[in-house]
Amino acid sequence: MKLYLDTANVAEIRELSWLVDGVTTNPSLVAREKRPFSEVLGEICGIVRGPVSAEVVALDRDGMIREARELARVAPNVVVKIPMTEAGMQAVQALAREEVHTNVTLVFSANQALLAAKCGATYVSPFVGRIDDAGGDGMGVVAEILPIYRHYGFPTEVIVASVRHPGHVLQAALLGAPIATVPYEVLKKLFGHPLTEAGIARFLKDWQKVPKA
Ligand code: E4P
Q1: Which atom from ligand 1 is nearest to the alpha carbon of 161?
Q2: Residue 4 forms beta bridges with which residues?
Q3: What gap in Å lies between CA 24 and CA 103, rounded to an integer?
Q4: Ligand 1 contacts CB of residue 103 (under 6 A)
Q5: Does residue 24's CB lie within 6 angstroms of at least one atom of ligand 1?
Q6: GO MF annotations for this entry (predicted)?
Q7: In this structure, are residues 90 and 61 in contact, taking their beta carbons and an 8 Å threshold?
Q8: Atom of ligand 1 nearest to the CA of 81
Q9: Using CA atoms, how far apart are residues 200 and 23, in angstroms rounded to an integer?
Q10: pLDDT in tens, 68-124
Q11: Ligand 1 within 6 A of 181 CB?
Q12: In this structure, which long-range contacts are made by residues 149-156, counting pairs with CB atoms below 8 Å and at least 24 apart in sequence?
């Protein structure tokens, strides 16, 4: 299973670059950095060897294709995030022919994921946290997408996105999702367990009782 970091913060990416397999950004994450996007994207692509998702903001097919080509020129590991709309899927289809890698974003249903795969998306991002927030079952949608992709042999990879807590990562792993993109705070939580900390403290305390040679 691959773990991506869901952030545009260069310090967070640098700290966890030894662990993560890729990075996803979106316009809201980029806005937090208060720096020009091209500068941030170039820096991230220099730190991470794996795929780095960068989102278009145009909403029409030709505008998305134009922006996608510009983003793809920044570095060979750029993956262009395209929103799940009809125009977006037309753009994905055209970009697939040019071998530009795409990540279809804002996916909330298995049917949307089916269309993204049919159009040749490299990745599809179901937003599990936002589905849960709206009273749905985010991981249930992932559980629907995975067998559909297997059934038809679609090469599109599922990125479990909008991850809110370690439970989402665990469920993604149990379902066999190939990738989860995880915010910094959630990724850091995966290392910890209260019994690990208590165990270390007890071992260190007991170590003091061992006679020195
Ligand atoms: C994924 O690619 C998105 O950037 C992200 O996971 C959205 O998460 P949010 O719902 O917490 O904004």
Answers
A1: 6
A2: 22, 181
A3: 9
A4: no
A5: yes
A6: aldehyde-lyase activity; transaldolase activity
A7: yes
A8: 2
A9: 32
A10: 999 999 999 999 999 999 999 999 999 999 999 999 999 999 999 999 999 999 999
A11: yes
A12: 149/113, 149/117, 152/117, 154/117, 154/118, 156/113, 156/116, 156/117, 156/120, 156/121, 156/122, 156/123, 156/124
SS3 track for 32-44: HHCCCHHHHHHHH
User: Does residue 213 sit within a domain?
Assistant: no
Is 81 known to be catalytic?
A: yes
Atom 1 of ligand 1, residue of closest alpha carbon: 161
- Which amino acid does the sequence have at 10? V
Residue 144 tokens read as 């629907």
Q: Is residue 12 part of a domain?
A: yes
Our count of domains for the chain comes to: 1
From 127, 141, 157, the mutation candidate for ligand 1 (largest count of ligand atoms within 8 A of CB) is 127
182 located within any domain: yes
Please name the residue that has the structure tokens 């997408």: 145
Considering the domain boundaries, does residue 31 fall inside one?
Answer: yes
Going by their DSSP bridges, the two strands 22-24 and 179-182 should be labelled as unpaired
Side-chain half-sphere exposure of 127, counting CA atoms within 13 A: 16
- Ligand 1 centroid distance, CA of 89 (Å): 20
Mean of per-residue pLDDT scores for the chain: 98
pLDDT of residue 140: 98
For the domain that residue 172 is a member of, what is the CATH number? 3.20.20.70
User: Residue 129 — pLDDT band, cuts 50, 70, 90?
Assistant: very high
Domain that holds residue 44: 2-208
How many A from CA of 197 to the centre of ligand 1?
30
